[in-house]
Every structure is written in C-alpha cells, then in structure tokens.
Amino acid sequence: MSGFARWWTETAAAVSDVLGLGWLLLILVVLATAIALLWSHWSRLRRPQLRFRRRRPTAEPETTVEPLLDDAEPDALPDLPAATFVSRADRFAAQGQWAEAVRERLRAVVRLLVDRKVIEHHPGWTVTELASAAGRNAPATDQPLAAAGTVFSDIWYGEKAANEDDDTTMKRLAAEVDRAVSGGRVPASRRGGS
C-alpha cells in the first residue's frame, strides 16, 4: 500500500471510531460537494469581474427624453412640450417610420390643446380620449381631431400599414387644429372634457 492510501485508511478508521460511520459519511459528502463547487467556479473566483452598466449610445444631445417616450404606451401623452413630439415625428418620417410619425403628431396636437387650456390633461386618459374631449370643448377642432384619431387608431389598433400619406394627413389635420384654437381661449366653463 502506498503512503497516502495507508494514511487515508488509518485516518478514516480513527475518525469513524470517534464520530461513528454515519457522521464520517456526512462529512465526506459535504467535503466532496465543497470541492466540486470550488472546482466548477474556480475560473470566476480567480478573476473577479467588474460589472458596469452599458450606456446607451447617444446620437444627439436631445435624446435624453427618448427612454421616457419609448417606454410610454402608444396612446399615452408623456409630459413633454409639443415641439418635442413634432421633432420626433419629423425624425421618424425622415426614416420612413410612418406609424411612429403619426403617433408623435397626434401627441403634439393633444399637448398643444392642453397647453392652450382647451382641455385639462388627465394622466389616465389616452390621447384619443383627450382629443374627443377637446372636440367637445372647442367645436371647431372636432372634425380634424376625429379624423386624426381615426388615422391613428387605424394604424396603431387596426394594424393598417402606415405610409407617407398618413403622415401628410396628420400634418394637415394638426395645422387645422392649430388654426381652430389660435384665435381665442375656450371659456372656463367648457374646459376639462367631463
């Protein structure tokens, strides 16, 4: 018998005399498990890895609002100026992303109506609900807003393929709404859409 084998046999016999065979087996299983875990994770333990959060690449300085808009529901109205929505719509249109351009143009129109106090923003309301309220509060906006809501809904909920004509239509309807509300304010008794 080799030296190690003899030592192992004598050590195991001495420990089993003191602890009993059951405890010896339990200790051996725990020791074998610890060695197996150490062996399987050895490369990670030798070289600890530092984890850094990856930054999103930024193409333009104004993209800091992008995560807020990208995480929003299609029919939501994030709390941003109308000019931001128009700018995004123009960028989407330049890239041929017509559905996104239509969505941003409708958001811009509704934000304009909120800013001009035609309606009050109700955070739980969708842009189509807000547009309907505006049509009731400012009757001159009713027809263009209804048409804009139809274009938006056909694309985003009816799954119609959007195209450049849809974006052009939304620009025209946005201009009509702007003209309709630019002349004066809506009486306080008509605000809110409720």
Automatic annotation (TrEMBL):
Keywords: Membrane, Transmembrane, Transmembrane helix
Ranges for domain Protein-glutamine gamma-glutamyltransferase-like C-terminal: 106-173
Matching Pfam families: DUF4129
Membrane spanning residue stretches: 20-42
InterPro entries from the UniProt entry: TgpA-like_C
Name of the protein this chain belongs to: Protein-glutamine gamma-glutamyltransferase-like C-terminal domain-containing protein
Source organism (scientific name): Asanoa ishikariensis
